[in-house]
Design brief:
- This protein is an alpha/beta fold.
- It folds into two domains: 2-104 and 290-301, Nucleotidyltransferase, domain 5, CATH 3.30.420; 117-280, 2-Layer Sandwich (Nucleotidyltransferase, domain 5).
- It starts with a strand and ends in a 5-residue tail after the last helix.
- It is built from ten helices and twelve strands.
- It is 38% helix and 20% strand.
């Protein structure tokens, strides 16, 4: 049995998966405010699940950050209470077994590459586009972490080929101007629309307004497609993935899957046909499912039951 934990800012979710990906159990609880209480809540979820199912499982955890290869401590987490703690070691000590921890975008990508939209593809790039813009890379069923544990974090690259009115770029929370995240996230779409119209609409409302033919909404959606396509084309030029799978709130914009591919084909170097840009299969479940799959490849290679 494989146990996945998705540690978010407001909730902790657990899923226990069978070898075929079916779920034995799923449950969620609110995320405590203190770090020590958070570790205890995760341990309690795991022990309670194992008691209920009568089985012990491997444990993987998805976090909104990364474990620094240099210090062994959590870094780059928007859940700031995690920063500076050896989360994997603390949780392993509480559980009495090894624990694997990975960035939530990496877990999303692993989930979709294992038994989701990217299943059967060798190289999969996962995009989470919502409140922010994150990414992950999966090759041959294994997540690429990188020397600095930031592989796939394309959201903090500058927007490629900026147009004259994009040159300075909005200030990103990371302290730099013009990041892809500051142009292509949900809040960025809402900000651009407000600058154009003076009105506050959510990304979903802007999308619906565009479908209804509202000119300002149509213009902002076209700008979003173009910016995303330029950003994705840079990934195609470097990684040339077999599939790109989109998750997060913006993944529910159906037009992405018709608008992006021909634009990426135009902006990328020499693609021989349209890049496969796919909507996720597992939705909000991909993080916790990917966490559960973190041990899968090693178990397969070791010949253990799957």
């Amino acid at each position: 049995m494989r146990i996945g934990i998705d540690l978010g800012g407001t909730k902790i979710e657990i899923a226990c998966l069978a070898s075929d990906g079916s779920e034995h159990l799923r449950h969620r609880v609110p995320t405590p405010h203190a770090y020590d209480e958070t570790m205890q809540a995760i341990a309690d979820l795991i022990f309670d699940a194992e008691k209920t199912l009568g089985r012990r499982g491997s444990v993987g955890v998805a976090i909104p950050g990364a474990i620094s290869p240099k210090t062994g401590l959590v870094k780059n987490a928007n859940n700031t209470r995690l920063i500076g703690h050896p989360l994997d070691k603390d949780l392993a000590a509480a559980l009495g077994r090894p624990v694997r921890v990975a960035n939530d975008a990496n877990c999303f990508t692993l989930s979709e590459a294992t038994d989701g939209a990217g299943a059967g593809r060798d190289v999969v790039f996962g995009i989470i586009a919502g409140t922010g813009v994150g990414g992950g890379i999966c090759v041959g069923g294994r997540v690429l972490n990188g020397a600095h544990a930031i592989a796939g974090e394309w959201g903090h690259n500058p927007l490629p080929a900026p147009r004259t009115d994009e040159l300075s770029g909005p200030l990103c929370y990371c302290g730099k101007n013009g990041c892809i995240e500051s142009w292509c996230s949900g809040p960025a779409l809402a900000r651009q629309y407000k600058q154009r119209t003076g009105r506050d609409l959510s990304p979903a409302e802007i999308t619906n307004a565009a479908l209804a033919g509202e000119a300002d909404a149509v213009a902002e959606m076209q700008a979003l497609y173009d910016r995303l396509a330029r950003a994705i084309a840079s990934i195609v030029n470097i990684l040339d993935p077999d599939a790109i799978v989109i998750g997060g709130g913006l993944s529910n914009i159906d037009a992405l899957y018709t608008e992006l591919a021909p634009r990426v084909e135009r902006y990328a170097f020499t693609p021989e046909g349209k890049t496969a840009i796919l909507k996720n299969v597992h939705g909000d479940s991909s993080g916790v499912r990917g966490a559960a799959w973190l041990w899968r490849l090693d178990e397969v290679q070791a010949g253990l039951p799957r």
